[in-house]
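User: structure tokens for RAVE complex protein Rav1 C-terminal domain-containing protein, please.
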Amino acid sequence: MAQTSLLSLVDAFLGTPSSPPLSLPFPSTSLILYASADTIVLLDTPSLSVVRILSFSEAFPGSSGTIACITVDKSAKLIAAGVDSRLAVWAAAASDGSLWRIHSTLLGSEPIQCIALQSGRMTLGTNSGMSMYDLDLKGDLPIWRRLWSASIPLPKTISLSPSFLYIASASPEESAVRIHSISSHHQIQIIQHPRPVVTVKWRQPLSKNSEEACLYTTTSDSVLRIFAPVIDAPNRLQLQASLDRWSFLPHNFDSADDDLMPSKKPAPIFALDRDALCKSLVPLGVVNSPISALDQGRRRKLEELKEEDWELFAYVANDGSLLVRALTNLDRRPPTLLRQFTFLQLPARTLQPSPHLLILPPTTHPGSFPTLLTSPPLRSHELHLLPFVDGAPDALLRVARGARPVDLEHVRLQSFVRTPDGGAIASIRHDGGGEIYVRDKSGRIRATGSWDGVGVGQIVLFDRGRSLAVYAGGTLRVHLFTPGTVKPSLTMCIVHTPPSIPHLLATPLSSSMTSIISITTVSISTFTLERGPLGPTLELHSVSALPLPSPPSLILPVEPMAWAHQPLQHPPDLISSPIASPSKHRYNSSNTTQDTLVSVSDQGHLSFWIPEASSTQGWMCTGSIHTGQNGIRLARCSSAKKTAIVSTEDERERLTIWDSKESEFASGLEYSHEFDDVINDLDWTSTDSDDAQSILAVGFNHRIVLLCQQRMTYFDQEAAWAILGEVDLVRYTPLPISDSIWFAGGALVIGAGHQMFHFGNPYPSSPSTEGSPSVRPSDKLTLFERVARQNGPLEDYHPQNLLQCLLWGKIELVKDVIVRLAKTLDDAADLDRGYFRWTPLPVSEYTKDRGVISSSGPARANYSYLFDESSGEDLSSNEIFGRALVSSLVRRLEETPLTHLTVNERAHLIVLIQTTLQIEEQRRSLDENGLRYLISLRLFYIINERQTTEQKSNGTNVSAETLGVRHRIRYRDIVWAFFSQSQEILLSASTEACGGRMEWKDARALVVSRHWSYTHSESSGRDHRSKSVYGWRLIGILPNPCLLYFALGKVRLVHGLWKQAAWHPEQKLMLKFLSNDFDDPRWRTAALKNAYALLSKQRFEYAAAFFLLGRSLKDAVSVCVKQLKDFQVAVALARIVENGDDGPVLKELLLNTVVPTAFKDGNRWLACWAFWKLHRRDLSVRILLTPLSDIAALLNDPIEEIGNPHYDDPSLALLFRQLKSKSLQTVKGSTEISGRTEFNFVLQIVRVFCRMGCHALALDLVMHWSFDQSSNAKASSQSPHEDSAAGKSPPPPARSPVFGIQARRQSFLVIDMEIPSLPATRPPSPDLRLSGPMGSSSSVRPAALSAARESEETEEIDMAKADVQAKRTGLGNLMQSAKKDVQVAEFDINTFF
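Assistant: Done. Predicted tokens:
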């Protein structure tokens, strides 16, 4: 029954059979089918799982009506059904009956009453009589042609004899059975009965000697009669025997009196299929084990049943006992040889009294049994033959059961609603009525109540499914159900005439009062339902409207699925109320911070609302977001602040998902996708974990697409949402989906036509003995576990968590995790099956101060046991982080991979474990940034090597992007190397990672041209590297060595290399040209001419080299940028030729190429590096937080093309924290950033950490982040005595900070800008000029101080501007005290608000 790996079909409400189900055997299975409204239901036996739904609209689109009759042709595998005067025939398209196609159709002139189909012949019973049809297969399409007709009273049942010689028919208008001859087309006999005939059925012959013309009839008094010909009249049927309920009930039967009462409707008698039982006797002859005496007797009885051709008839008494009676010698003559006797009797409560009973043969699967079916309700039982023939109680074992019938099960479904906690749903039918369903402990859905419709309207369900409010026809009705009642026990009505059809929302106010809110775009009406001691009352409480300038296009209630995971708070006097009993899934009405309504404007503006606590009629807006979406036609908002919007653009459906937490660092848009199909429905649910991850079901005509949030990764920029899977209903039914809705717990109910499909988890939640869900195999997870696997907190050993810990300096924590992982895997007994239990580290391990990365070397062993005799035991090598433990762990992970991790995650985990060991061994000589670069370097090379090796070993041709292979290290990793003080060590590590020889492709991949600090040794080192790289083997790609050597001025060296290239066709020309003196202007001009000639021939690398030879660096850089599209080469050449980082060409390259490229790509790391190189370190800090458009406006040449800002990188906070107090320029840049902006930036990084699954690191960030304290110039210049003299009280003490806001002392501060002197105590000389902060000249006058004081006394301005002004005022004091410690006032959190 599995639909997908996420959800499987648990149950289906397809309607109960009103007529006896039919069987259709296939080689590997047997199907049962019955008509339900305008569909035919095909079920598998014995599981009763849905195989297929056949809709009459497939054959006649747009038709309506109820199927009146169905029949099957078992030999041709055909199904025929009739609705009014239309007939449709389906043919099996698969050997197991799972696929069906339309075979043929027939349109008659009269309503069809009954059908008989056999061997390509069909008989139809209509209002005027009976007609025989033959199937014509000569054309392209099969056509039914009428052979003959007979006028008979209205037939209700028709049966064709197995020999295809006779047709038996019966009509409710007469108590008789008519027999027609197929060959002569005439009626040959009428068999009169004392009562109306209900069914007629020809007996199936078991052998060649069996009588073919043997007919069973059943009358309305449940008497079964057997007719067969006699020797004297072989062409006429005569009564041979009859069976009634009296013949089944012995005199000593306990329930005989009840069954024989005239008031009791007699139970029918069934003719059991001997063929189904005889097929089960075949394997009984093969016995490989000893047989008991009891079983030997049972087997003899079964063999006798088979050999003597007994006919079996069954009767189910009112107490559920099954009685079987045998009739023998039916094929013998004369009739006096017939004998009846009781074959077996099963005890009471074996079966439910049912009007239909059917036995199906076993399937071909090993260990299968015959199946006994009863209906309605539909139930299947395994029939164990040996106990069955002996009447043992264990003879029948119930396997499956269908749904109980409900009143409106044949009326089409319109929509669903649910209670706020998701514990109950209501199905709404087209006539306005419906049913209420709840889930039991086993996870199955059962109907608990129903109500009758009074017209189509809006419905809300509340009070755990015991109360229902319906708006229809200008009246609001509230139905109240009491436990155990199916229909409402009380209905209250109140007149309500809103301007349009409203949406209804119910919110409990207390244990005895519920608020019912009627919502339209113009007004909002609130009704109160109070359950008082005198009975419930319903009254109008208030009418209000949202405080908006104009009515919105939509006002919708917020989906409260995520509210159920919060504990319900009740007043003390209400806890004892049964209605207020708390439960795990309970709607929390007391939490007023949860949104209640969402309004959508025509311009796509979303606003979220809650009732005002101080007002009974007002609404308060809790937030808003501008989506910019036009033409919104569908929207759904969840209580987790997620809003899904459907808009139509260019006849395509656009689905967008928005987070209401909009800020300058996030637009709120999380997902955007266009669909070709029309979206009909949206529905939210959430996982039952504490973080309540959201899941969105997007409904189309025939499928439901499931979307869930995706965990962010540090390496890839993936979409915030992704398709988790889909439920495709086409596999089961051709009917379009009318609606779908979530139950709490991850169950999805889908309505199509008049039928419901319940999809749930294919696997139960993992028991504690098998490990937590996070470490189970991925293919054994429930829906919620799969979503939690892709969201929520990560395991401590997850590679992404380990990587972030390493980047943030928590190496000791990582070592502890690795040691614990090794010990856990060693102790795991079921690791080979993918199971093991991981005990999470306490959060305090993440938040406690373990010290930052330092060069003090690895942590030393604790030798305190020398002074403690009780601690003298040595630790084993497997419990101490070291090479032995790492080697063992890596080997274990490679031999037995962790199945719940992806292939890339397993590779990352192994690489990080090995990298941690390398860091531990080399951390003595590396600084923080050097270690971060080393981590990225190891991951870059090892991951690429592992993925490439696996691709070659598997022989697959997969793209590098799919494998996770990168061609270049990321810019953020380059910035770590740039700010590192261990340049030479990193260079050595990079060379070692390249195999000891760094070629230009390696230098490009590592972008060494940007992160090397230029020193005198760089030229010699680069010269050495060029010589080592470009020798005889690589002389064929000379442009690169020419570029490098010409930039270094090594023309003679290139000349020597050309001498050895005798095979090159241009050797003579190059030797002749390079032998000239290029210090001479003449030959430099010649080199430039050659460069332009090479440029015209598109030999760009040679052209750049000759530009360098002609001493035109600017042109060489231009070729590298415009033609080669490689500004890395341009940067390297500019730094080499200009002998540093201050040359004009490099500056122009950075301003005109690198900075615009960074803004276009939204790459803040590249822009930070470029501004640092341009000595604009203030912008280098601001670019990390400030919007790119604001920084672009500050440049001389404004940049118009700006890409995605890319704030979703936690390392931005790490770099900002490091740079903002690194120098005077960076301090100046940080003062340009308001405290509120920095506060929001930290919150954004916290959200990013949570999106990445590193919740503990997010907590650590907010606990240890420190804000620079803004000092007031006036407060800094005045002493406490001056404050007292001025009559001002000292400032109030600072409040407890939200984050770790504290004063920080820098060990040093780089002075990279001129510091202005304070004015002298005497009047300055008029001619004295002082240098300004950025090198500009300015006069310092006493008026400047008075102007500063006047500016401090101005009126209050905008919050963010005031914060920036405070920082700027304190900057002057910071510059004056840059070389000494300064005591500043405690930071006030109020500056943020």
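User: Anything notable?

Assistant: The mean pLDDT is 79.
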